[in-house]
Write a structure and sequence with these properties.
Structural class: alpha+beta
Bound molecules: 3,4-dihydroxyphenylalanine
Order of helices and strands: HHHHHEEHEEHEEHEEEHEHHH
Distance between the termini: 80 Å
Radius of gyration: 42 Å
Number of helices: 12
Number of strands: 10
Largest sheet: 7 strands, mixed
């Protein structure tokens, strides 16, 4: 009897499987618990005649060991699987990380700086909080010159009696021309990108801060023809090789003669459309030959040296390149807007 029961369990050992922890526990209870099948065989063993006890006792111990080992082996399998699932799988594809994009103004600034860098212009910078000298006086704005009102300036410190003692937020990057001439002797060939401030109500077409790029070239024998050629190269690099430029007479205190530059409309190619108000042209920058008074104010001999300067608005160029209609988009940081400038690879 006992022998048959032992054989029956032995036959079951190889079949024992469990694919989850509950099934394994069920096996343990069925075979190894106090009321389990092995325990019941040990009960039966008590009734075995003494002459069979030795042999059957051995077999009984064997079957108990086998069942215990089998159940332990099954448990180890589970443990291994559980441990494995905790391990980092370095072959798994990474969870994609949302990357930011360059701001459209940075994209365009870089593009413009790169174009001038190819012509040998180097970067220059200056502070945003400036004294009157660098923003106005050294640039030939006389103390009572009405051109000071051309730009609505933010004052950090305002002296009612003496405007030349004012501290302001710079209203143009032309101040960096003066800073550079303070510290460098000609030849000077610089490009100065930076933020400027003007006391304007914020609308779709005006903002109290925006960005400019200033250019300055001073050397012996620099002429208006040099200026024109550099600006033509710039316009064609930026807007395409079919682009034409035109220079219209204008006025700035720090240049003489002064001009404003138009490029052929990038929408209609110069034929005339609603964007260019049927003129075929859009204005992109101011420029001119550096006024001798400006050179002299910075200690540069205007009988030896001459130069040209130009200044452009980065927002304006970005609007023209990407048809952004509302200036406020540039500082609101709406990711849906910024995402449109994600480079396509
Ligand atoms: N500073 C001028 C402005 O903010 C722009 C400008 C015009 C800069 C002519 C120049 C220049 O260097 O030659 O409106």
């Amino acid at each position: 009897m006992l022998q048959e029961k032992i054989d029956a369990i032995l036959a079951q050992v190889a079949e024992m499987t469990a694919d989850n922890a509950e099934a394994l526990e069920a096996l343990r209870i069925r075979y190894l618990s106090k009321k389990g099948e092995i325990a019941s065989l040990f009960n039966d063993f008590k009734l075995v005649p003494p002459e069979q006890k030795r042999e059957l006792g051995q077999r009984l111990n064997e079957v108990k060991t086998l069942v215990t080992e089998r159940i332990n082996a099954l448990r180890d399998q589970f443990g291994a699987v559980a441990k494995q699932s905790n391990r980092v799988d370095i072959t798994r594809p990474a969870v994609p990380q949302a990357l930011g994009t360059r701001h459209p103004l940075s994209v365009v600034r870089k593009e413009i700086v790169d174009i001038f860098a190819r012509l040998g212009f180097t970067l220059a910078e200056g502070p945003e909080v400036e004294d009157d000298w660098h923003v106005f006086s050294a640039l030939n704005f006389a103390a009572d010159h009405p051109a000071r009102d051309m730009q609505d300036t933010f004052f950090v410190e305002q002296d009612e009696q003496d405007v030349t003692r004012n501290i302001v937020l710079r209203s143009h990057t032309s101040s960096v021309q003066v800073r550079t001439m303070d510290h460098h002797k000609p030849p000077i060939r610089i490009i100065c990108p930076g933020r400027v401030y003007r006391n304007e109500a914020i609308t779709a077409r005006a903002h109290c801060f925006f960005h400019q790029i200033e250019g300055l070239y001073i050397d012996k024998g620099v002429t208006f023809a040099d200026l024109r050629q550099v600006l033509l190269y710039f316009a064609q690099q930026l807007f395409g090789s079919d682009t034409k430029i035109r220079l219209r007479p204008s006025y700035f205190p720090f240049t003489e003669p002064s001009a404003e530059m138009d490029v052929t409309c990038m929408l209609c190619g110069g034929k005339g459309c609603s964007f260019c108000k049927n003129t075929g042209w859009v204005e992109i920058l101011g420029c001119g030959m550096v006024d001798p008074a400006v050179l002299e104010a910075s200690g540069i001999d205007s009988s030896v040296y001459s130069g040209y300067a130009f200044g452009l608005g980065i927002e304006r160029i970005t609007n023209l390149k990407y048809m952004v209609k509302d200036l406020r988009m540039f500082s609101e940081n709406d990711v849906r807007f910024l995402d449109e400038f994600r480079p396509v690879h």
